[in-house]
Amino acid sequence: MVPPAPTRPRIVFDTNTVVSALVFGRRLNWLRSAWASGTVVPVVCRETVDELIRVLAYPKFRLGDAERNALLEGYLPFAESVRLPDPPPAVPAISRDRSDLAFIQLATVAKADLLISGDADLLVLRDVITVASAAELRLRIGASD
Prior knowledge:
The structure is a single chain. By secondary structure, this protein is of the alpha/beta class. The protein has a single domain, classed as Rossmann fold (3-Layer(aba) Sandwich). It is built from 7 helices and 5 strands, in the order βααβααβαβαβα. The longest helix has 11 residues.
């Protein structure tokens, strides 16, 4: 009998993590490789994608439409899309930052394995939701540069 294939962790990445990987690369190149190779599966919803698009348009990044689209093409094709119900579900924790709510809701609805963030407002919720830093994910999946 053939053993079952290992399951790939389904992960909600907050916007700061995705932007760091897409725009600044270097430190998180391993993360781009992990989702591109299928080692992890990013989970997104309309609300989280809308925020990513909005943040990539910030003037401080100086990205044109073509550059933003190229960055999104390096992420979205690898993601599983989940629809948040209306009304959204009750969640086990609320972040001090209301913009984090969609990520918590998505992780809850999608039954994601992890919510990955560098945001202190989310990381303090470790006892209530399954949240970890990108560095912790790297150790968990054994990713290298």
